[in-house]
Amino acid sequence: MSVTTRRDGAVLEVVLDRPKANAIDAATSRELGATFADFMADAALRVAILTGAGERFFSAGWDLGAAADGEAFESDYGPGGFGGFAELPARPKPIIAAVNGLAVGGGFEIAMAADFLVAADHAEFFLPEVLRGVIADAGTVRLPRLLPQHLAREMLLTGRRMGAAEAARWGIVLEVVPAERLMDAARGLAARLCAAAPLSVAAVLEVMRATEALGVADAMTAMRRHAAYRACIDSLDAREGPRAFAEKRDPVWRGR
Questions:
Q1: Burial of 121 (0-12, 13-18, 19+ CB in 10 A)
Q2: Active-site residue 109, yes or no?
Q3: Is 129 a catalytic residue?
Q4: From 13, 31, 109, 206, active-site residue
Q5: What pLDDT, on a 0 to 100 scale, did the predictor assign at position 78?
Q6: Does residue 71 register a pLDDT over 60?
């Protein structure tokens, strides 16, 4: 097993553990995919935290050793795509990437695909694929949406490393903390997310993804027609929230 999990109430902690660099081959990607599919299907779980074992690597990305042994670049990585969750057809629950070290190539792509990214202060991010004769496919799509075009091109075309502090300045990383506080920071964020109504969280995430390429007017129309939006505003929880506020108590969310 290259993936271990720990449940803490409504939070699932997922640890990628493949010494020495937490590189991901096709079998590990499918294992991650099964883990995240189960997480999405489990009504008792609200948030997932993904991190790497050890202190040096979050993930070195694609396992070049497996590639040298003949594993194809376009292998079957499972229904969630490379890393297990970026291409899942529905992602109504937030995933936090707790980057504990180097996020290289596909490891950086996985971190970018998460809904939130917190990083240890020694973490670094880079995409060296062009130096290996391939392309950072998800990185080529995602990074220009997160950074100014010239900076994204520099990283994609040179493999230049970006430290955690710089990544935070550009908004890629939400929070940078000392390594010993990384999981505390991720767990604190998860707790804040768990305080929100689950259908509201799902609606925000699903609507954001569905409308990101639309103009404001079209996005507003699409939002009001989206199934997740309708499920949220027509729910029992949508009545519970105002009632709890008026009664000066914490809401009791039912997810329906």
A1: middle
A2: yes
A3: yes
A4: 109
A5: 84
A6: no
163-168 mean pLDDT: 97
Chain length of the chain: 256
The pLDDT, as a whole number, for residue 156 is: 96
Structure tokens at 71: 């594993």
Of the residues 31, 124, 129, 206, which is catalytic? 129
Residue 111 to residues 62, 126, 239, 241: CA-CA distances in angstroms?
A: 14, 11, 36, 33
Query: What does residue 207 show for φ and ψ, rounded to 5 degrees?
Result: -70, -40
Torsion-angle region of 36 (φ positive above 0: left; ψ -120 to 50: alpha; else: beta): alpha
pTM: 0.92
Kindly state the helix (H) or strand (E) to which residue 115 belongs, with its residue range: none
Provide the b/e sequence for 158-197 (b: ≥16 CB within 10 Å): ebeebbbeebbeeebbbbbbeeeebbebbbebbeebbebb
Task: Find the mean pLDDT for residues 156-181.
Answer: 96
Domain boundaries, the chain: 3-194, 198-246
For the segment 184-196, the average pLDDT, to the nearest whole number, is: 97
Q: What pLDDT is stored for residue 72 in this prediction?
A: 58
* Pairing status of strand 47-52 against strand 95-99: parallel
Mean pLDDT of 141-163: 95
CATH topology of domain 3-194: 2-enoyl-CoA Hydratase; Chain A, domain 1 (3.90.226)
Q: What is the pLDDT of residue 69?
A: 60
